[in-house]
Amino acid sequence: MDQQEDFLRLFLTYQAEIRAFIGSLVRDRHGSDDVFQEVALVLWKEFQRYDPTRSFGAWARGIAAKKVMQRWDRLSRMPVPFSPEAIEAVLEAYDRTEAASQPQADALAHCLEGLPDKSRQLLTLRYEQSLKLGQIAQAVDSTLDAVHKALSRLRTRLHECVERRLATNS
Amino acid sequence: MERAHELIQKYLDEIATDAELAELERLLVTNPDVAAAFATVSRLDASLAKTYREEGDIASTRAIFAMAKPAHSPRRFLRPRSWQGLAAAAIVLAVGSGIYFQFGRRGTIPELVSGQVRVNGVETARVIDGATVEVVGPQPAVIALSDGSRTELSPASSAVFVGRLGDVRQVVQLLHGVGRFEVQKGGGQFRVDTAAGTVTALGTQFAVKMQPFERVQDRKLRPKPHTIMTVIVTEGSVQVDSGGQSTVLVASENRNFTVERKADITGTIESIGKDVGDARTIAIVSVGQKQTFRFNDETKIEKFQGRGPQVGQNVAVWLDPEAKDMAYFMQNLTPAK
User: Which of A22, A82, A92, A144 best probes binding to B when mutated, by most B CB atoms within 10 angstroms?
Assistant: First the structure.
């Protein structure tokens, strides 16, 4: 298997994790996409230096953390609200809790199927259309606080459902 | 931990206050359990985003794979040349927002000689044929083309290097900004396509200047976005095709070519969001599909009679070429009552 194939195999395996880590620190969707693409290019360019005895995900997140910090330094308007110390703490937490993403994605898909239409509508507005909470509140004729509480409950419920399903399958 | 969860959820929903963000940051640094909870919940948040935005992620990943392809073709521009050294024609273009023309033929390998560019949104030193190249940073970008010609794109300009297309040896689509083209003599036509027409080098030296997104009154004296291309011939002659007419200009001649820009979106306003930052989001339903974009005080708004856009109105929207989710110009198409 050549170097490019090795890279693509690892990259495809871990891209969801890398996206999640960047997205946790850069909440603006376009900014997060920009960082992700920059990180992907660095990973490709630096792939020869990757130590295969280490986790590819940890290596990639380390580079992503540096990119996020660099952007924060370069463009102070970048929406990265946390200090480098907090970014490091999140990086370590991601390394400690790394899990295979595909089983989680499958479990999440199953859990989403069980949601009522109203809940799915909220998730569509928030995650597909990337609407802010105020806009969602207007769209569903509710208040910002009520929408936030509903989304928080939904995420908690989905997280519990995913955990249960993963535990059952294992 | 309950407070930490509350803060994490607020952070994810982008409604945490500065004080709450500072509190969450402190907890992340001092309490590994909070950081772990943050990782777990933000992973779920990302999985939800991925589930609902799969298409965008695939497109983005495709662009990255295109970048990751190993270089496989020989470099054709090994010897640096000076601008003056080429027996060439020079074209200068300044273009406003343009249309991305689709071409099937791909075959050139443009090379970045100097400056910084972004290709398909990613900063790189490698220019990909057929991809959108945007100049970033304060310096112009010089790009060598496969036929020996060179292009200098000014800061904030963007173009697509199409390469050979049929009988035309070199086609460049100038999407936005200013470009200087030093055209190698002989070997077929060198053509620059823009939103306002095409300029074909006839083996001479000339300049073209385009003014982007100008507001020009139409026949009913309504101001609408137009693209204006000014062609200035300094030596020899050029052929300009614009608005269905073909014109040959010779040395010392210059002329403006004005083309009305079609609206990017027309449809019915379904909803208007509240102020978020300096802009509001507006959702328009057009042929059964909903599209959203933002507008702010800088958006030119015509025929809304001081009330601004309202839900239910039919509107036409021209998007900002540099920020596609932002309206540059909006016109009310609903007949006055």
Answer: A82
User: pLDDT for B225-272, tens place per residue?
Assistant: 777 777 666 666 778 888 778 887 776 677 777 787 778 888 888 888
Count of domains in chain B? 3
* Shortest Cα–Cα distance, A105 to chain B (Å): 7
Give how far A110 is from chain B: nearest CA, Å.
12
CA dist., res. B293 & res. B272, Å (int):
10
Pairwise CA distance, residues B270 & B103, whole Å: 35
The answer to whether residues B165 and B275 belong to one domain is no
- Give B-chain residues touching A15 at CB under 8 angstroms: 61
Interface contact flag, B46 A94, Cβ < 8 Å: no
Give the integer Cα–Cα distance in Å for A63 and A52: 15
Q: Closest Cα to residue A91, out of A25, A7, A141?
A: A25
CB contact under 8 A, A128 and B52: yes
The model's confidence at residue B181, banded by pLDDT at 50, 70 and 90, is confident
Kindly report, residue by residue over A63-103, the tens digit of the pLDDT.
999 888 877 654 454 567 788 888 999 999 998 888 766 67
CA-to-CA dists, residue A48 to A4, A42, A59, angstroms:
10, 11, 12
CATH code assigned at B143 = 2.60.120.1440
Which amino acid is residue A12, in one-letter code?
Answer: L
Q: Confidence class of residue B7 from pLDDT cuts 50, 70 and 90?
A: very high
Domain boundary among B260, B283, B312: B260
Domain ranges of chain A: 3-96, 101-169
Instruction: Decide which of B242, B260, B278 is a domain's last residue.
Output: B260
The residues pairing with B302 across neighbouring beta strands, listed in sequence order, are B331
Q: Which of B243, B259, B258, B261 is nearest to B317 (CA)?
A: B261
Range A101-169 classified under CATH 1.10.10.10: yes
Q: What CATH code is carried by the domain that includes residue B305?
A: 2.40.50.140
| Helix axis angle, B18-30 to A84-96, nearest 10° | 50
**Is A151 close to B40, i.e. CB distance below 8 A?**
no
Largest distance between two CA atoms of chain B: 77
Round to whole Å and give the CA distance between B82 and A39: 35
Check whether domain A3-96 has CATH 2.40.128, yes or no:
no
B64 with A40: Cβ contact below 8 A: yes
Domain span at residue B296?
A: 265-332
Which residues in chain A touch residue B274, judged by CB atoms under 8 angstroms apart?
A: 134-135, 138
